[in-house]
Amino acid sequence: MSLEVISKIRSHGGTQGVYKHASSATGTDMEFSVFVPDHAAGATLPVVIYLSGLTCSQANVTEKGEYRAACAALGLIFVAPDTSPRGADVPDDAEGAYDFGLGAGFYVNATEAPFGQHYNMRDYIERELHALIGADFPADISRVAIMGHSMGGHGALTIALRNRDQYKSVSAFAPIVSPLNCPWGEKALSGYLGADRAAWRTYDACALIEDGARVADILVDQGTGDNFLETQLKPDLLAAACAAADQPVTLRMQEGYDHSYYFISTFMAEHLEWHAARLRV
Ligand SMILES: N[C@@H](CCC(=O)N[C@@H](CSC=O)C(=O)NCC(=O)O)C(=O)O
Fold it and tell me: Any idea which architecture 4-279 has in CATH?
């Protein structure tokens, strides 16, 4: 697969790159960023995939996530994909709203017209990006972690729960834990998947756990000053689903933190250390 290099910059004892490729999953060009710490010739490094939230491209976490020092110290490759397909023929929200369509792919394979043709972010992350990172970067693809923020936290949790063998660890910042039970999720899943709520369950972390999916453990940080806490995020639903299913989870309520990258960057190094400990075994 041919990768176009958009940029490559030295930072924190490593190389921060931005790349573009023609995606077979989405039928569009896709951009992603990769930070590779310096490493011995021929060595391969474990990988952390970071899934971003509504309105984001790869650039938000790349510019504001403050992950490079920790990744360089821990020897982790950090990969940040886009949140949706993009391009002139990619359909968007009918009213141009930020919570559906462009920048809001919700990490699903859409089945509803006109979204099914391009909105295949599940396949893109789980299959295409995974293979591409293994083929084009010094990555140990048997040691991959996944994390994300908000819509990306939903993506990380659901992708890890559906693919326990592919991801050694999972964590999230302020995730949407149950799209079945919040306005962002109901809008997105009805638009991408149609009205049958049974079909949504494979894209809902709480429902997946209720239905028997498991991971080794889960780390979630959630700010108590987050505007979306009560209406959209509802971490108590995840705590309840995990308790009922004996699914280990560490849910840390962080006093006064909001939904922004000021919050994410504060706890980013702790999440990377948590993943590094699990990727070393
Ligand atoms: N624009 C909206 C809110 C959009 C927003 O807060 N996006 C978050 C993710 S929300 C869940 O997925 C985000 O990461 N934004 C990008 C950033 O750089 O902060 C509004 O204004 O209400």
Answer: 3-Layer(aba) Sandwich (3.40)
